[in-house]
């Protein structure tokens, strides 16, 4: 299995598959099962340690964050750090939302159209075009960042949300195209397209009548992927925007950086900025995995 | 001829905007960056730039600071890949036979991937506080409480490059191990159960079953994982920025150095660093892509 193949969501399905009989039968004693369980719980603890610290610290008063009491529960629980973090981050949150949602929708739509053509309405050289597109997924953005800034200045694009929407849409096209190409190649039989063609349906008709109605799972994967990666992006934000027009990652970096750091507020801020993607992960986890599989190579 | 163009023409037309956009924003801008890297547009340079050939590259590879960033990146990559593969593989091995509550373990192990590296960097920066002993904070304080004094260490402020960069790798391992687990888990579940049964009928021990039957089946996944992780490590930026700030020589990698160089308005050198990063990624990814495409065609 390759990363490209994994993009179809096959991987996500394969993980959820219950192990078949025979896998569990031999070689598994009760003792080894207990050991396995204990280990799994220990690792669970390891992964959750930062979560515990963040949570308790975010409810502490400023006098309560001394070295000795760092791992204790708050002496008095307070919402003050949350209020403080929210006051700072609120405008950034709004900008991030107004940026991530359109960017995710636009690049998904383009990806769907591209993916359909590359999978089921092929033309001579389609493979070459696919490789041409795919390469854009792997580049370190440092290699394009400086002329990108110059281009935006030359085009007189408003700095901030509009700049970032354009950047994320363009550099999101490869991954969305890849996901949709593999999705259509798996779920749409060639015969359906052939018979539509025989009936005289053109590309647009076939896409709108046959493909779009069965694209929902594909859209869920790309929308989640794009939303998450745009929301979590810091590199474009740092290079293309400033504190007064940047997204939430920039706001959090400012809140938690600087000379005198308010730890409780920083932790509350880390939680606040993570909520949107965490909610998506909790509600739509199985599609999330599909996107992760495909997107891990993206810059 | 006319008829054939009518069938595939619309498809090519759909892809045209994407090809033009990526042609400019990926390939065009890379060429632009490369072009800048061949000039003397250094700090404070006014007026038209002149070409200096590969001088900037030559200077980079003799400059202590750049070589330091490359060494840091090398150590970081090794520590990150080894750590992530170990945890990912162990978790997949523990889960692959199916345990009660498997989806809970899976979701928790995977959730750090939904969080931005800035948010996790803010939290880990707090956990990796270098103070020790009486004044210990963060993880060191936890070790103090648990009487595991020997585990306390100065983390990324340590003298040795290995300790320093392994401390940076630790949060990255925390974020990415779940993803590798998902990859391997999908691999295990994709192996036909007949293979296991045949091996058991032949009297193979559990160890031999894994060593000689199951692991060889996973080698394509291991290769994918290696490429994906290497690729992530080469671009790691946000995490270092959030944990140590961008101005630490001891944790500086090329991605960070590029940002610092840009802040000094040395456009030629910043471009050269971006192009070197691209070259490293290309060396890693292009053979892998070729291999992937060949595999797809064989199927």
Description of the structure:
The complex is a heterodimer of chains A (299) and B (299). Chain A is mostly helical. Chain A contains 14 helices and no strands. In chain B, α9 (206-235) packs antiparallel against α12 (267-298). Chain B has one domain (64-298): MetI-like fold. The model of chain B has no long low-confidence stretch (mean pLDDT 90). Chains A and B meet through α1, α2, α3, α4 and α5 of A and α1, α3, α4, α5 and α6 of B.
Summarize the structure.
The complex is a heterodimer of chains A (299) and B (299). With 299 residues, chain A is mainly α.
Key structural traits:
heterodimer; A: 299 residues; mainly alpha; MetI-like fold; 14 helices; disordered N terminus; B: 299 residues; 12 helices; 74% helix; flat
Element-level helix/strand string of chain B: HHHHHHHHHHHH
User: What is the helix/strand order of chain A?
Assistant: HHHHHHHHHHHHHH
Query: What value does the average pLDDT of chain B take?
Result: 90
The two chains with the largest interface, and their residue counts, are:
A-B, 113 and 113 residues
Question: How are the elements arranged and paired?
Answer:
The complex is a heterodimer of chains A (299) and B (299).
Chain A: H1 3-6, H2 10-16, H3 30-58, H4 80-120, H5 126-135, H6 145-155, H7 161-187, H8 190-198, H9 203-211, H10 216-232, H11 235-240, H12 248-256, H13 263-283, H14 285-295
Chain B: H1 2-37, H2 55-60, H3 64-95, H4 102-110, H5 117-127, H6 138-145, H7 161-190, H8 193-201, H9 206-235, H10 238-244, H11 254-263, H12 267-298
Helix pairs in contact in B: 1-12, 3-7, 3-9, 4-7, 5-10, 7-9, 8-9, 9-12, 11-12
Subcellular location (chain A): Cell membrane; Membrane
Protein name (chain A): Carbohydrate ABC transporter membrane protein 2 (CUT1 family)
Membrane topology (chain A): Multi-pass membrane protein
């Amino acid at each position: 299995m390759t990363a490209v193949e994994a993009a179809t969501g096959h991987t996500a399905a394969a993980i959820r598959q219950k192990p078949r009989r025979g896998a569990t039968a031999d070689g598994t004693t009760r003792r080894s099962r207990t050991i396995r369980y204990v280990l799994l719980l220990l690792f669970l603890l390891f992964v959750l340690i930062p979560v515990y610290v963040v949570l308790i610290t975010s409810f502490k008063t400023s006098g309560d964050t001394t070295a000795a009491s760092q791992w204790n529960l708050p002496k008095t629980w307070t919402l003050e750090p949350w209020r403080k973090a929210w006051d700072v981050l609120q405008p950034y949150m709004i900008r991030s939302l107004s940026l991530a949602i359109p960017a995710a929708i636009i690049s998904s739509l383009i990806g769907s159209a591209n993916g359909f053509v590359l999978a089921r309405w092929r033309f001579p050289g389609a493979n070459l075009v696919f490789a041409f597109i795919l390469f854009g997924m792997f580049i370190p953005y440092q290699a394009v960042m400086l002329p990108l800034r110059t281009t935006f200045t030359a085009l007189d694009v408003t700095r901030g949300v509009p700049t970032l929407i354009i950047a994320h849409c363009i550099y999101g096209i490869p991954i969305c195209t890849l996901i949709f190409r593999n999705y259509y190649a798996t779920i749409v039989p060639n015969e359906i397209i052939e018979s539509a063609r025989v009936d005289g349906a053109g590309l647009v008709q076939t896409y709108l009548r046959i493909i779009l109605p069965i694209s929902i799972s594909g859209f869920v994967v790309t929308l989640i992927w794009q939303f998450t990666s745009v929301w979590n992006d810091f590199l474009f934000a740092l290079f293309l925007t400033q504190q007064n027009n940047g997204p939430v990652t920039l706001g959090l970096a400012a809140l938690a950086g600087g000379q005198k750091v308010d730890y409780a507020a920083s932790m509350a801020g880390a939680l606040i900025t993570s909520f949107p993607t965490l909610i998506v992960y909790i509600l739509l986890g199985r599609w999330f995995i599909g996107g992760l599989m495909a997107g891990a190579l993206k810059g | 001829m006319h008829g054939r163009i009518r069938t595939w023409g619309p498809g090519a037309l759909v892809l045209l905007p994407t090809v033009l956009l990526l042609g400019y924003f990926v390939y065009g801008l890379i060429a632009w960056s490369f072009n800048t890297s061949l000039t003397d547009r250094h700090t404070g340079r006014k007026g038209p730039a002149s070409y200096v050939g590969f001088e900037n590259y030559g200077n980079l590879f003799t400059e202590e600071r750049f070589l330091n960033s490359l060494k840091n990146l090398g150590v970081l990559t090794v520590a990150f890949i080894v750590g992530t593969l170990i945890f990912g593989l162990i978790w997949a091995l523990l889960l692959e036979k199916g345990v009660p509550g498997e989806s809970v373990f899976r979701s928790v192990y995977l959730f750090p991937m939904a969080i931005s590296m800035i948010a996790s960097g803010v939290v880990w920066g707090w956990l990796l506080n270098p103070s020790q002993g009486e004044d210990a904070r963060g993880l060191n304080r936890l070790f103090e409480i648990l009487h595991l004094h020997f585990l306390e260490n100065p983390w990324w402020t340590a003298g040795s490059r290995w300790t320093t960069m392994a401390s940076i790798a630790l949060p990255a391992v925390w974020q990415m191990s779940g993803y590798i687990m998902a990859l391997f888990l999908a691999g295990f579940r994709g192996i036909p159960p007949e293979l296991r049964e045949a091996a058991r009928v032949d009297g193979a021990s559990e160890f031999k079953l894994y060593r000689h039957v199951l692991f060889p089946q996973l080698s394509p996944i291991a290769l994918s994982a290696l490429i994906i992780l290497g690729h992530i490590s080469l671009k790691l930026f946000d995490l270092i920025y959030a944990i140590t700030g961008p101005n630490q020589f001891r944790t500086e990698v090329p991605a960070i150095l590029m940002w610092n160089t840009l802040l000094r308005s040395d456009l030629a050198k910043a471009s050269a660093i971006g192009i070197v990063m691209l070259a490293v990624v290309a060396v890693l990814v292009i053979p892998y892509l070729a291999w992937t495409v060949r595999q797809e065609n064989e199927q």
